[in-house]
Structure formats: C-alpha cells, structure tokens
Structures
1.
Amino acid sequence: MAREDFADPSGKLEYHSREASSNLESDSGYKVSVKNFNSWFGTKQALKNINFDVKENTVTALIGPSGCGKTTLIRSLNRMNEMTSGATVKGSVFLDDVDIYSGKVDPVIIKRRIGMVFQKPNPFPTMSIFDNVAAGLKLNGIKDKKMLREIVEESLKGSALWTEVKDELDKPGMSLSGGQQQRLCIARALAMQPEVLLMDEPTSALDPIASSKIEELIHELKKDLTIIIVTHNMQQAARVSDYTAFMYLGELVEYGPTKQIFENPTKELTENYISGKFG
Ligand SMILES: Nc1ncnc2c1ncn2[C@@H]1O[C@H](COP(=O)(O)OP(=O)(O)OP(=O)(O)O)[C@@H](O)[C@H]1O
Ligand SMILES: [Mg+2]
C-alpha cells in the first residue's frame, strides 16, 4: 500500500521542515546520518561525538558492553531520549536530508517515520490484537474500517504473525506468547509505515526459536526499510547485520561492514570485545 493511501489529509504527516534553511540540510544520500552527536544525563556524558552513516535498506547492529551507550544512542535516533528527564543532546541526526533535531521538525512526526521496538514486548495491556496494531492509526485520525482492517492485516503479515492470529484478532494482545507479543509490537510499528525501524535488544527476552523468527523477519523487513538493532548477541549481530558499530564508554570505537568488523577489526579493543575477552 502506498504511503499516501493513509496519509493524514491535513498534510501533518509531512515534515514541517521541508522549508528548513539550508544549513539544516545535508544531501549525503544516506538514510540516517549521525553527526558530531553528544548526549548527557545531567552532567554525565553518555555519548561522545558519535559519527556514522546508514545506507537505506541495510541492517546496522550496535554492539558493546553494558552501559556503553547503545540504548541512549538508538533512542536518540528518533528523539525518544529527550523524553528522559535531565537528558540533553548536542549534534545532529539526519533522516534523509533533514536534521531531526532542527527546531522546525515535529518530534511526533519523527517517531512515525522512525519506529521503535523495545527489549521487552510491550503490547497495550487492555487492547485486543487488532487494536494494538490499529491504535496508532486511530490516533492519527484514520476511521475508515476497511482501511484499518487492510493495514492491520498487512502489518501482521509484515511481522510474520498473521497466520497465527488471523482467526483471533479480538483476543487480548497479552494472551500471546512472548515471541508473538514481540511480533505484535513489530506489527504495531509497521502499521505507521516507518522508513526506519529501531530495535533495542528485541530478542533478549525470547527463546531461541522465537528469536530466530525475529531474525528471519529482519531479513525480510530490510527490503522495505532501514533497520538499526542493538544486540548483545555477537552471533546475532553477525547473522542479521550488514554493518556493525562497536561502542565503548560512550564512544563509537569502530564502524564498518559486519564481515570486516568480525573478521578483521582495525582496533584491538574491538577484537578483544568480539573475541569475548571482556563484555
Ligand atoms: N535515565 C538515565 N539517567 C541517568 N543516566 C542514565 C540514564 N540512562 C542511561 N544512563 C547512563 O548512560 C550510560 C549509557 O547507558 P545505556 O543505557 O545507553 O547503555 P547500554 O549500552 O544500552 O547498556 P545495556 O547493554 O546494559 O543496555 C550509562 O552510564 C547509564 O548509567
Ligand atoms: Mg541498553
């Protein structure tokens, strides 16, 4: 389904910043570009001058030991981090050619274009399977029942959950297994037709079979979107990602094609982490 098919007729789904001044724009050709990005919680710096570019229709894995800033970084990529009290940032994150931190960009629109899936599946507890997927659409004023049904079906197919739930869409979302709940959350994100999907350890609460379903799904989804995933699982990073970013103490130590990072890292720190010497 084309994006316009359920675009907000008021046009609010469009960037406010199309007319942004030229110093806020970049024509790098990358889907996401992080430039000189810093983040603090109070006075404590969590991200230190991060720079990297992400190509469209690729999967990028963020790896590194606990506390190195992976969650802070991924939550900064759709301005979710600023919802944490005391969190401040400096620097830019470009989506296509627009800095999402430009004052002219509406953070709500950013969150629609850059969706997020969390570590712990978090379906809306009181809602049915159907309503979990439709909730964001309804919030955006889409009332047409046929359109809602179509988008819900397409999103559940997109998250490889449709065949398992198509006859029980009215059941509570919470009645599903953990792995199904996570695919429901992915469907919920897909319903907004995001261009980028951020996933923070999406399989860490799942068993190996449910995890491998999500990994297969990531392979499928990258045909349509750009994915950035945090993972503690080195094998998972090697399996699902095209590019890998290794972080340590708030810095991006090394970034490159996954094969190179895993087989031939340029930094000793990366090699030590990948080979399990610390972490
Ligand atoms: N809400 C917060 N308030 C204060 N400090 C925070 C907050 N969230 C994170 N931090 C700090 O920022 C740093 C980076 O944390 P972050 O959660 O991004 O790490 P991480 O790499 O995701 O770790 P993990 O692998 O354990 O999930 C840590 O030092 C952490 O203590
Ligand atoms: Mg984290």
2.
Amino acid sequence: MSEKLHKVTIDRSRCCGYGLCAAICPDVYKLDADGIVYLEIDFVPAGMEEAAIEGAAVCPAEAIHVTPPMP
Ligand code: SF4
C-alpha cells in the first residue's frame, strides 16, 4: 500500500534545525531534542501530500525530498 504514497527522504546532516518543516507538516516531520529533523514514517499519509511537499520546499537547507509514487 505504501508504494502508492509519496516517499520522504531526509538528510539529517544538512538539517540546521529551523523547524519550518515540522511547523508546516508535524505529522511527517518530527524534531529531536536538538531540533534536528527525523521521520517516524518514510511515506506521506494520504491527504497530507500538499503539506509534506510544502514542508520540504521551505527547508532552507534542502534537507528533505518528497518523491511521488511511481505511476
Ligand atoms: S526545515 Fe530543514 S533545516 Fe529546518 S528542521 Fe526541517 S529539515 Fe531541518
């Protein structure tokens, strides 16, 4: 089922802890105690695609990539 969902990858080494991603899409992007992003799930739940993509787009470190499902 998850192969039909957008996939999320993060590069924690790029993250500088601004938290913008988590502010926009807290269901997908979580922040650890140091404010660095991490994922509890690596796919976007249905209906949250727009927020997940926006959260990735606002990241000043370009640390997040959201990949649409294969057709
Ligand atoms: S927006 Fe980017 S730099 Fe900021 S916490 Fe999220 S991943 Fe890290």
